[in-house]
Amino acid sequence: MLPSVEKPAHRHFLIHKPYGYLSQFVGEAKKKKLGEFHDFPAGIMAIGRLDEDSEGLLLLTTDGRMSEHIRSKKVEKEYYAQLDGLIDDEALARLQTGVEIGIHNVRYQTSPCTAFRLDFAPAFAPRSRKIRDDRHGPTSWVSITLTEGKYRQVRKMTAAVGFPTLRLVRVRVGGVLLGTMPSGTVVEVADLEG
């Protein structure tokens, strides 16, 4: 009888992805990647992605089943978006009921979502690339919570209602919160269910 070989336990991480980094570990040589923040174990993968211009909470795991589970069960993802202009109630209502956007040259109707204006500017650290200031017109912040995740969806949705996104930060995935985690921080956790 062969001795049983215990599989190594899967590992899970939270990272506050900064602006200007790709949500991957290999790829274009001149681009900044997640592996620059930590010596991650072999087989690590991002659950979902944040584009290079977006910031915030990213979940990482070595467990493919966990990754699929979180992506497939329509887990809520909440974003704070700084918009060009002062968003009005009509535009918020359109976001809430779904808007038509383009995904890889195909028209797509987004699902209904939760969207509301924030009465405060979130206390995020300044970004490495400056966002224009109020001399160029006012900005507003909104919270948008989705259960789907199309390519650059939040940015396309806010542009579709006339308020382009200037800064986008993911603050929650399911029950896991970004909280006050500083940009570039990596935290190993026991599980990703929050």
Automatic annotation (TrEMBL):
EC number of this enzyme: 5.4.99.-
Pfam families: PseudoU_synth_2
Alphabetical keyword list: Isomerase
Signal peptide range: none
PROSITE patterns (alphabetical): PSI_RSU
Residue ranges occupied by any Pseudouridine synthase RsuA/RluA-like domain in the UniProt entry: 12-160
Stated family: Belongs to the pseudouridine synthase RsuA family.
Protein name stated in the entry: Pseudouridine synthase
The species this protein was found in: Hymenobacter lapidarius
